[in-house]
Amino acid sequence: MGTDFSRFYDGLDDATVVQTFSDYVNPALSQVLQFIGFSSYEVEAQGSIVRDSSGREFLDCLGGYGTMSLGHSHPKLVAACKAQLDRMAFSSRILFNAPQAMLAKKLAEVTPGELHYSFFCNSGTEAAEAAIKFARITTKRKKLVSAKGAYHGKTMGALSVSGRDKYKTPFGPLVQDVENVEWNSIEDLERAIDADTAAVLLEPVQG
Asked: Residue 49 is inside which H or E element, if any?
């Protein structure tokens, strides 16, 4: 990789970054990271390798919670992003968008079932929020079914259909008419789905 780190971070020392992160971002996460032995900050990444401020290399087994499925800084992806930034950094939102239209068409062609329209968003949380709204407005029903132990995000709707009380309880009352069923239990799922069910939200791999 061989990048000159200082030109990006102006020579910030580890202690300054850790303290600033604690003061202005997330003190609880800072405590956890320091407890498990991390006191440096990430500087760059390539493929499955992340390099920190002291030059140490780490094998990234997390992959941005799945967002880095191609690895960090994949050359084809970087080239495509740079080309688009040179051409147009963000849609004007007032004219038709060709890449968006072509991608939606391709998704409709390759996905099973009757998928016709696509909703593009930035995260799984936004996707869960949109799914809840689409389901309720389309079916005119209210009930949402998801699995115990599930994680769908931390915004209000996505949190409501998650199945972990430690995340949900502090923010109640949440969206109503949600039932959590036992994970991987067809019997429990069949019992929960009734005439008022708008949607079932399940993770292929529970996380």
From this structure: strand 49-52
Which residues pair with residue 52 across a beta bridge? 42
List beta partners, residue 44. Answer: 51
Q: pLDDT tens, 147-163? A: 999 999 999 999 999 99
Give residues with Cβ within 8 angstroms of 59, minimum separation 6: 48, 49
Residue 8 has pLDDT above 90, yes or no: no
Q: Band the pLDDT of 206: cuts 50, 70, 90.
A: confident
Q: In Å, how far are 23, 134, 199 from 137, measured between CA atoms?
A: 42, 5, 11
Do residue 138 and residue 188 come from a single domain? yes
Distance of CA 105 to the CA centre of its chain: 23
Segments forming the whole domain that contains residue 108: 93-120
Domain count of the fold of the chain: 3
**Measured distance between the N- and C-terminal CA atoms of the chain, rounded to whole angstroms:** 32
